[in-house]
Write a structure and sequence with these properties.
This protein has 158 residues and is mostly helical. It has a three-stranded antiparallel beta sheet with strand order 2-1-3. Helix 1 runs antiparallel to helix 5 and helix 3 runs antiparallel to helix 4.
Length: 158
Amino acid sequence: MAKYVVVEENVESKSEKRVRIFLAVLFFIQIILLPLPLMQGTVVIDGVEGVGHRTALNLLFQYNGFNSFSEVMVAIYGAILIIMPIVSFFFCILDKRSIKKYIVSGITCVLCAVIICFGPKDSIAIGGVLTLILNVLTLFMTSQGFQATRMRERESGK
């Protein structure tokens, strides 16, 4: 009787696996950094104005509700800063064969960096600086993983 062997054509190479795991670790660190203050600026609580820090969670959940359109936009910024790294983390963990994880990772890095730099009109705090550094590193590793996947596909096509 003949034995059939199933051969997977899209087997992940060692370099792709290392990049994918490293990206997952970077996004996990970015998720851990969510409670750190991203921005600092004036905060009004019960009519008293003072200097305060805003985390991504504070951007999403306002103390006294959403009174204007700008506060709704700030909440959307907070939701993006919270949800996108989590989605990218799960893409990096679960997607082993396609380049979708690199596309999602690149979009996440660019979107989070734009929101931190040009979002609410506050100055950037230590959490924002660390997140920006992680985003630059993640974008670099995303390009490396994309190139490793393309090289594997090119070699398997020969």
